[in-house]
Amino acid sequence: MTATELRLDADRLLPPDPGVRALARRLYEHVADLPILSPHGHVDARVLLDDAAFADPATLLISPDHYVFRLLHAAGAPLSELGVGQAALTESAARTAWGWLCRRWNVFAGTPVRQWLEAELVEIFGVSSRPSAASADALYDQVADCLSRPEFRPRALFERFGIEVLATTDDPADDLAAHAALRDDPGFTARVIPTFRPDRYLDPSAAGWSRAVAALGHAAGAEVGDYRGYLAALEDRRRHFIAQGAVSADHGCIDAQSEPLGAAEAERIFAAALLGQATAAEATAFRRSMLSEMARMSCDDGLVMTVHPGVLRNHHEPTFARFGPDAGNDIGVGLEFTRALRPLLNRYGTHPNLHLVLFTVDETLFSREIAPLAGFYPSVYAGAPWWFLDAPEAIRRYRAAVTETAGFTRTSGFIDDTRAFCSIPARHDMSRRIDAGYLAGLAAEHRIAEDEAFEIAHTLTADNPRHVFKL
């Protein structure tokens, strides 16, 4: 390969030992073409409903993908020049953003982002030249030309990617009209399902919480002036989501504390919070109690409960003020699960309806807390490496940390968690390659039989996500 050439090696990410690599290659081929199950992501359902051509290369590959633009920002690119927070870009602005990507291509070396971008450029758009300042305009023109063709519209790519199920992330007050229209469209047969994301309705300290509760009540057609009505409204909206195909409720709380309040205390804090009079400690206690309430509701209605705490959102306040949320500056903080979830699990941990999937951005939690919890509680599953951990070495460490305590069946299956539509197949392909290599290593050490390795590869790719997320 020349210095200016871009291509993908067929054995990328597989083990370097020739014998182990040969088995890993066969394991990967066994699962490479299985349908993609994406039970947690952020692609807007309206993209598939409208099926409009993507506007330009930058708004497809850069501005929706915080993994891409945050590193470019760290390397000196202003977010305003990367299209962040902008609904549409002029051609000049799109070329400016694209130029930043090509000129700063080196900042992605060694990162999973480079792997995803290379796979997108080569496998989707047929790019064969490495991004650089010299190649920027030609690559932009090549990708833009592709986007003008019918086979590169969202639905055509969706089918080409082999996506069977795609979950979105949605506000509880959303009417889910786009999901209903897709479900009723005879020309679209795949499953695009909503996910119930109630965080801003559960935390009285969140800006605009009282207005959000009022909107929730309006959507549910319920009176939410008291705690009982508020709970009823949440339960009603969960039923609405289930009717539109939802299988899970997603919780991105700052911690996993779950100590429940008594009914009278919860009512008192709720009433004070509506008046803006709840203290910070009371608001925190209410939020933590509502995590247990969400588990109770999941036991009642069967929605899978995913919990991914430990992230401080919008770390850089000036960026949040100008560009809003999801601008690449969410940063992990320390937390623990064992004590935090004990109240919830004491009540609901053995309930047959509860599937509780735990995600973390702190690798130390995999072996110390998550795997032991998943290895005892029938409701608990170890969520796949997520966010900054969905990288080759982190995925390998996850497998080593979790498998010895909880095995393979207590894990969730891969989660792409992306707004960047074209990165979905690249992310799932990376996971399949890494798992193939891990299983090949176990077989080479005679810790599992070869035929068992093939069964487990299928389990990790297809069976686990279907079971864990009730697909």
SS-derived structural category = alpha/beta
CATH topology of the largest domain: TIM Barrel
Instruction: Please report which band the strand proportion falls in: under 5%, 5-15%, 15-25%, 25-35%, 35-45% or over 45%.
Output: 5-15%
Classified in CATH, the superfamily of the largest domain is: Metal-dependent hydrolases
The assigned CATH architecture of the largest domain is: Alpha-Beta Barrel
Low-confidence stretches: none
Main sheet specs: 4 strands, parallel
- CATH class descriptor of the largest domain: Alpha Beta
Main β-sheet, spatial strand arrangement: 4-5-8-9
Structure overview:
There is one protein chain. The chain is an alpha/beta fold and 471 residues long. It has two domains: 54-149, uronate isomerase, domain 2, chain A, CATH 1.10.2020; 155-468, Metal-dependent hydrolases (TIM Barrel). It is built from 20 helices and nine strands. Helix 17 links the parallel strand 8 and strand 9 (380-382). Helix 17 (364-374) packs parallel to helix 18.
